């Protein structure tokens, strides 16, 4: 048995590194170990050992099985996206996420993403909510949409919304 540490290579176009997080069948997992195993018939196989994030439970899987699985690169979510979800009340969550959104009253009729100006515009009837990325910030469509949507739904000004989101993201977790 040969064990690998650190960067191993690429699989399905994904950088494979021991200790990194990945998405496996929609769950966040951490790659703990990579081993080359040789069975009694001298067949080689690469076996990956994963542990579920924030858990002691894990699993191992062969390279061949991993190639067929729903395996993706994991990207950390930004604070604004997570904050938006925490800031919603239960009734807002039910209204916008669980299907009552079909009424269309609170959803924008049109969304405009302007990468050149680093701006996201949500159009509601004859009103518009516009947010822009700060100088030096990378333009992120999702963050722009969520920030504009949050401002519109809460009625907070840009400054108030930023202060509120900063406050709740800096609070200690339970």
Describe what you observe in this structure.
- The chain is of the alpha+beta class and 174 residues long.
- It has two domains: 2-73, Thrombin, subunit H (Beta Barrel), CATH 2.40.10; 79-170, no CATH class.
- It is built from five helices and eleven strands.
- Strands 1, 4, 5, 6, 7 and 8 form a six-stranded antiparallel beta sheet that branches. A three-stranded antiparallel beta sheet has the order 9-10-11, with helices on one face. Strands 2-3 form a two-stranded antiparallel ribbon.
- α2 packs across α5.
Features:
single chain; 174 residues; alpha+beta; Thrombin, subunit H; 29% helix
Q: What's the short story on this structure?
A:
This protein has helices at 63-68, 79-87, 90-97, 141-154, 158-170, and strands at residues 2-4, 7-11, 14-17, 21-24, 27-38, 44-52, 58-62, 71-73, 110-114, 119-124, 127-132. The protein is an alpha+beta fold and 174 residues long.
Shape: elongated
Output the helix-strand order: EEEEEEEHEHHEEEHH
Q: What is the rounded Rg?
A: 22 Å
Q: Share of helix among residues?
A: 25-40%
Continuous helix count:
5
- Look at the helices and sheets and give the structural class: alpha+beta
Strand content: 35-45%
Nearest-integer average pLDDT? 80
Q: Which consecutive residue ranges, at least 5 long each, have pLDDT under 50?
A: none
Q: Quickly count the domains.
A: 2
Q: Tell me about the largest β-sheet.
A: 6 strands, antiparallel
Gap between N and C termini? 42 Å
Q: How many strands in all? A: 11
């Amino acid at each position: 048995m040969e064990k690998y540490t650190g960067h191993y290579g690429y699989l399905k176009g994904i950088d494979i590194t021991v200790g990194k997080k990945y998405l496996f069948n929609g769950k966040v997992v951490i790659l703990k170990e990579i081993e080359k195993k040789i069975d009694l018939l001298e067949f080689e196989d690469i076996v990956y050992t994963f542990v579920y994030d924030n858990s002691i439970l894990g699993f191992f899987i062969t390279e061949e099985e991993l190639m067929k699985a729903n395996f993706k690169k994991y990207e950390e979510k930004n604070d604004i996206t997570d904050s938006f979800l925490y800031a919603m009340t239960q009734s807002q969550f039910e209204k916008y996420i669980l299907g009552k959104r079909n009424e269309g009253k609170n959803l924008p009729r049109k969304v405009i993403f302007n990468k050149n100006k680093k701006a996201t515009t949500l159009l509601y009837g004859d009103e518009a909510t516009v947010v822009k990325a700060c100088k030096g910030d990378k333009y992120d469509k999702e963050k722009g949409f969520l920030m504009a949507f949050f401002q519109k739904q809460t009625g907070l000004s840009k400054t108030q919304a930023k202060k509120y989101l900063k406050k709740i993201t800096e609070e200690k977790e339970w």
